[in-house]
Structure formats: C-alpha cells, structure tokens
Design a protein that fits this description.
Elements lengths: L5 H11 L14 E9 L5 E3 L2 E2 L3 H9 L1 E4 L2 E5 L4 E6 L4 E9 L6 E6 L4 E3 L6 E5 L6 E8 L2 E5 L1 H10 L1 E5 L2 E8 L2 E7 L5
Parallel strand pairs: 1-6, 7-12
Antiparallel strand pairs: 1-2, 2-3, 4-5, 5-6, 7-8, 8-9, 10-11, 11-12, 13-14, 14-15
Helix pairs in contact: 1-2
C-alpha cells in the first residue's frame, strides 16, 4: 500500500464531509503509517516542516482528526495516518456570552471554526506549568479533542469570573450552561 499524502487525505475528507461533520468515530481503517504533519501549540499546522497557509485546508484536516489514547490520527473510511500534536490539537480563539452570572452561556470558536458551548458535555480544565505556575486553559470541543484557549480569550474570560464555593472550597471560576467551572483556588490568587 502506498503511503497517503496530504492531497489524497484532503480529497477524501472533502468527499466525506459534504453532509456535515464526518463520522470519524465510526471509521476504523488499518493504520497506514505516520506522515510528517504537526500541529504546533499556537494552532499552526505544518506539513513537511512548512506551515499550511490555506485555512480551508487546515479546517478540512481538522474535521478528520481523531484521538486514540495519547495519539492523534487523520482518518478517512479507508486510511488512518499518525500526526504529531505539540499540545492540544485545536485552538480556541474567541467566545461569545449570552446572559449573565449563573445564567450565562459561553460559546467558544476555534481557529478551525468549530463552535462549542461550555457546559457539562464540554468542560473547561486548567493546568498549571510546574515551573512558572502559568495557567493553560482548555475546553473539550468534540470526541476527546481539546482546544487550548488562547491568551487574549483567557484574559477576557477572567473578566467574567467570580468566586464560588465548589466541592467544599472557595474557587475563582466561570459559569456556563448552569454549571460552575473552577479555574483556581481563591486562596491562590494574589
């Protein structure tokens, strides 16, 4: 079997995705090997070490992205190839707010135009760098694919944050879809 290249994967993804998002969760083709494709922490996709500059092509590839364990693949009904992901495979670059306080809803948009409402099925998680303590916030977008929330968007989120008693401790966090999402213990704030 010949190793697929970016053009054949793009053609298959385009054909498969004509009627909405492709059902990648149903596709389990044989593994065809790894290709030289990488998603950087800032959401830039690289092929053969060169950034992919065409946003529609990146969007197309992101639609056939699948995670199995700690590995990431581009899949079609007949091919499955491994790719590298530096951090999260998606990047949340903006959000909209509807309502306010405990009744608000936060809808995130990714660089690849996925839209997701923060809520029970799409939680927020925040990790902190062990050396610097700097937070890295993520939102679950779809099928075990998380998006790193970019810095400007996170700063906007902080403006909406509040303190709330959660699991017996006081946290600073966010409300969306009737659920509180803790970000940092209130006692750890300066």
């Amino acid at each position: 079997m010949t190793k697929p290249n970016a053009d054949t994967l793009a053609a298959a993804a385009k054909a498969a995705g004509k009627k909405g998002p492709p059902p990648v969760h149903l596709w389990n083709p044989d593994f065809c090997g790894d290709i030289d494709m990488r998603i950087a922490r800032d959401g830039t996709w690289f092929y053969l070490g060169t950034p992919i500059g065409r946003a529609p092509l990146v969007k197309l590839f992101s639609s056939i992205l699948k995670r199995e364990g700690d590995d990431y693949f581009l899949v079609t009904p007949v091919e499955k190839v491994g790719i590298k992901v530096d951090d999260a495979p998606l990047l949340a670059i903006d959000f909209e707010v509807a309502g306010e306080g405990q009744g608000q809803t936060l809808t995130f948009t990714t660089k690849t135009e996925d839209e997701t409402v923060l809520g029970p099925g799409h939680p927020l998680r925040v990790t902190r760098d062990e050396a610097t303590g700097e937070p890295s916030p993520y939102i679950l977008i779809r099928a075990n694919l998380w998006a790193l929330i970019d810095r400007k968007t996170f700063f906007r989120l902080v403006d909406l944050g509040c303190h709330h008693l959660h699991d017996g401790q006081r946290w600073f966090g966010l409300w969306s879809s009737g659920q509180f999402f803790p970000v940092i213990l209130s006692s750890e704030l300066p």
